[in-house]
C-alpha cells in the first residue's frame, strides 16, 4: 500500500519534433486509476491537459538513456516521458507499474466478460437527449453493425485466386472505415455519466479493434507475398512485385491531444499522394538513357543558403535532436529536421564541384606530367568553394536509391588555359584525339562540352556514383562516395569514403584521389562548415603525387579553412610545388623555380550548369523528385516540406522492405559494381579504346 500512494511532480513530456520536450506537471491518481498532467502545478485545479487509464497500461524504461521511459495505455496512446535523473525515473516507473498492475487485476475481478454486457450509444450524437441508457436489447455488436459470416457446413475454403486479392483489399478498407467510426463514437461519449469514453470495456474494445486491424493487415501482407512467390516463376525477367496499395498503418491514427480527421488520406496534398504512389524505380525503365545536351538549358536557379535566422528559431528542435544522440553514433539512419536542408540533392552538390570546367579541361593541356599534376591540384582545391552554398552549414537531401542527376557545361575554347605558345584546340601528332564515331563528320563547335551524371547506387550504406567527361579533350572522371555521418558532441562529422579516378586519355594517365572529411560546427548557434583530414592524389604512370592537408581550426587561435599541400616527384622525392591558403578564399602556389601564383576563389568565374526542364526530366531525376520539397522550402513552409520529404522516405522504406521479402535484387541504371567500387557503364576510356581498335582494323 505504501507503494500505491498518489505521487506528483514535474516530468518532461515529448510532444513532437517541432515542439520537442516540455516540462509538465504529472499526477498519479491511484484512487481514480489515472495518470494526469497539467501545464504546471498552479493549474492543477483546472481540467487536466491529458489523462490516461492505468488499467492495462505498460510502463517501460527506455534504453536510449537512464532518464527516459514510456507509458503505453491500453487505448493505444503513448506518453514519452523523461525524469531529471535515473533515481527519479525509477521512482516513477516502480509506482506506475505497481498501480497499473493493481487496476488491471481489479478489472478482471470486478467486471464480467465483454460479451455478457450490452449497451447503446444511440443517443450520444444528440446534445439534447437524456442520459445514455444501457439496454439489454441492443449490444455493441448490433449497434456498430459488425457482421460475422459463417461458411456453410462441410464446404472447404476455396483457394485464393489473384483477382480475389482486390476483393480482400476492398473488404479490409470497409472494415478499417468501420473501425474508425467505432473509435470516433467512443471518443464522442461524455466524460461523465453512466457510460463514458473512459469505460473500461470501451477502452479495451478500442485497443483490441486496433490490434485486430493490424493483425488483418499483416495477414493480407502474407497473402501478397504468397501470391508473389507463386507467380515469380512465370513472370518475365525484370518484372518486380509491387503492393496493390500501401500497407495501412494504424499506429498513427491516434496522437496525444490531437483531433483526428478521417480519412487521413483525403487531407494530404495531391503531390504527397503522387509521391507515395510512384511505382518502384525498377518497374520503370532501368535502361540507361542518353541525355542530349542540346535539350539542356542554362540553369537559372540561384538558391543561396544564407538564412541564418531559421536555425536560431528552430533551436529547440536541434536541442531535441541532440538529446537523442550519443557520441560517435552513426547518423546514417537518423532523420534530420527539414529546416536544416539545402534546396538541392547530394547528387547535385557533387555536380556543383565541377563549376570551374575551364580548370578541369585545362588539366590535360599541361605540357608535362609535372604541370598536369599541379593543374589537377589547382582544380581540386578550387572545387570545394562552389560546392558549398553560402556560409551556413545546411545538409543536402539524402538521395533516394535509383535517383539520378544529369547536367552539362559549355566552355568556350578560348577560356581554357593552354600550354605556353600553343592553342587550346591544337594537339601534337602523338596526342591526336580519336573522336567517337557519333562525333565524326560533325562541324567542330567553338566550345567544349562537359557532361555529368550521378546516381544513388545504394541506400544502406548510402553510396553515390558520379561520372563526368569531355569527349573533345579525351578526359573523364569516375568516382564513388559513401557518406558516413557521426555525432561528435557540438559538431557533426561526415567522412567521404571512396575514391575517384581522373583519366587523361591523350596521355594515358590516371590520377586517383580521395575526398576530405566535412564538419558542421557550432550546431547550437549558427552552424558553419569546415573541411578536415589528409587526402592524396597519385599518378602511377608519371610517379608524381600530391599530399594535401585540410586543417581544422584549433580550440584556441588559428585560422579557419586553412589548407597546405605539396606536389612531388616520388622517384627523386623532390617537391616541385607547395600550396597554402584557405580553400574558400585565396590559395598561394609556390614553384621550385621561385615563382609564386595566387588564386582568389572569390573572383573565379563560375560557369552555370545546363539542366533539362522539369517537364523533360524522368520521375527519379533529382530536381523533379524533390521539387515539392524544394518549392515548400522556398516558400518557407517547413511543415509542408516535411510532409513531402516524409512521403518520399516512407516510399523508399516500403520498397526496400518489399525487395528484401521477395529477394528481388536492386538494379542500377548507369553504374556497375566493380570490386569495392562503382564504374560508369559506358566510360570514355572504353569508347575511345573501341574506336581506336576499329580504326586499326580498318587500316
TrEMBL record:
It catalyses: a 1,2-diacyl-sn-glycero-3-phospho-(1D-myo-inositol 4-phosphate)(out) + a 1,2-diacyl-sn-glycero-3-phospho-L-serine(in) = a 1,2-diacyl-sn-glycero-3-phospho-(1D-myo-inositol 4-phosphate)(in) + a 1,2-diacyl-sn-glycero-3-phospho-L-serine(out). SMART domains: PH. It comes from the Eukaryota. Transmembrane segments: none annotated. One of its GO terms (molecular function) is sterol binding. Keywords: Acetylation, Endosome, Golgi apparatus, Lipid transport, Lipid-binding, Membrane, Phosphoprotein, Transport. PANTHER family: OXYSTEROL-BINDING PROTEIN-RELATED, OXYSTEROL-BINDING PROTEIN-RELATED PROTEIN 11. This is Oxysterol-binding protein. It comes from Catharus fuscescens (Veery). The lineage of its organism: Eukaryota, Metazoa, Chordata, Craniata, Vertebrata.
